[in-house]
């Protein structure tokens, strides 16, 4: 088959004027590339068709879909190719399909790497449970959710709605203010989640504490600031032991780093 392609390419070079063929080939590659990119990454079809670069971050945003769809595109592209093609247009189209499939595969791989980069890997510095200190003092309406020794790896940004505090499994998690527990159980990506609602200086405050290894309170229970509500773990969508904490004031999401003493 490769010999046939080479022959066809040689014939094509002879048959078509040099100034015309590259333009046609590039046009075909661009058209097929845009078509396949549109299938593999629907959200970025417009970007692809304008031949603008797609950042790793953009690709990562759709990684869950692209990882699956890209493999289908590759299969469809190869299956749809006819390597016995003899006209320059067919040869160019077949090559473009194969190249586009390869690009889709590479984009999927890049997306997988980018997604992996967003997981949590800072576990070596996490202290053991034995080093846990007494519950932190409440100041300014809020207390800290963890004893010292944690590492903040991420806060609010993009689709991420909380602050990630990496620390050893089993570290106690404290209620950052007094309130009433509204959720205490496993909840999808949050894993073991405790959500409680309190009142700070006249404002309604909702606090979500995610990825717990175990939960120490129940729904409807009243908690006081500094009370242990659960223990650090890595349940749900998490790859390392950490507390993911979200804070909403009067229903609006805020950055925990701006309101909690952390
Ligand atoms: Zn998080």
Question: Can you tell me about this structure?
Answer:
There is one protein chain. By secondary structure, this protein is α+β, with helices and mostly antiparallel strands. The protein has 2 domains: 116 residues, no CATH class; 131 residues, Glucose Permease (Domain IIA) (Distorted Sandwich), CATH 2.70.70. The protein has 7 helices and 11 strands. The longest helix has 30 residues. The structure holds zinc ion (ZN).
Write out the distinct hetero groups bound to the structure: zinc ion
Give unreliable regions as ranges.
16-85, 112-132, 134-138
Main sheet overview: 8 strands, antiparallel
Helix share of residues? 25-40%
Total number of helical segments? 7
State the distance separating the first and last CA atoms: 64 Å
How many beta strands in the DSSP annotation? 11
**SSE order:** HHHHHHEEEEEEEEEEEH
Q: Could you name the CATH homologous superfamily of the largest domain?
A: Glucose Permease (Domain IIA)
Mean pLDDT over the residues: 70
Output the CATH class name of the largest domain. Mainly Beta
The CATH topology of the largest domain turns out to be Glucose Permease (Domain IIA)
């Amino acid at each position: 088959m490769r010999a046939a392609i080479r022959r066809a390419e040689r014939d094509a070079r002879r048959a078509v004027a040099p100034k015309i063929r590259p333009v046609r080939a590039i046009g075909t590659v661009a058209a097929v590339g845009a078509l396949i990119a549109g299938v593999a990454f629907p959200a970025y079809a417009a970007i692809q068709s304008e031949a603008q670069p797609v950042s790793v971050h953009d690709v990562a945003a759709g990684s869950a879909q692209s990882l699956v769809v890209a493999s289908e595109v590759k299969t469809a592209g190869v299956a749809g190719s006819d390597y016995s093609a003899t006209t320059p247009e067919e040869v160019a189209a077949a090559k473009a399909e194969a190249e586009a499939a390869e690009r889709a595969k590479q984009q999927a791989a890049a997306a997988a790497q980018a997604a992996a980069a967003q997981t949590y890997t800072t576990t070596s510095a996490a202290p053991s449970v034995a080093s846990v200190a007494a519950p932190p003092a409440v100041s300014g309406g809020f207390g800290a959710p963890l004893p010292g020794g944690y590492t903040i790896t991420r806060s609010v940004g993009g689709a991420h709605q909380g602050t990630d505090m990496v620390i050893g499994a089993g570290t106690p998690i404290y209620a950052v203010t007094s309130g009433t527990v509204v959720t205490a159980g496993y909840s999808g990506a949050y894993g073991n989640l405790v959500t409680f609602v309190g009142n700070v200086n006249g404002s309604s405050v909702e606090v979500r504490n995610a990825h717990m290894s175990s939960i120490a309170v129940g729904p409807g229970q009243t908690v006081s600031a500094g009370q242990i509500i659960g223990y650090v773990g890595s349940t749900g969508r998490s790859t390392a032991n950490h507390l993911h904490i979200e804070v909403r004031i009067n229903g609006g999401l805020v950055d925990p780093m701006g309101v909690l003493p952390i």
